[in-house]
Protein: FtsZ-binding cell division protein ZapB
Amino acid sequence: MISEFHQLSEKIQQLAELTQTLRHENAALRKKAVVLSSENADLTRRMSEAHRRVAALLDKIPVVPQDESEVQENA
Structure:
């Protein structure tokens, strides 16, 4: 009977330790998720800015009419 209580006590202790370990791991993962979310938002913002800048550059490139491009190729 005492042996059974001792085994039960050990299992409860193991469960408590596992629970504590999982809580610490969960907290670390939550912090990491916040950091990754912030990095993702920053990268998304940077990609949008790069897209806007490329679009602005493309808008500055003059459009050559089809007839003129053929003349330039033959010259």
Remarks:
- Helices lie at 2-60, 66-74.
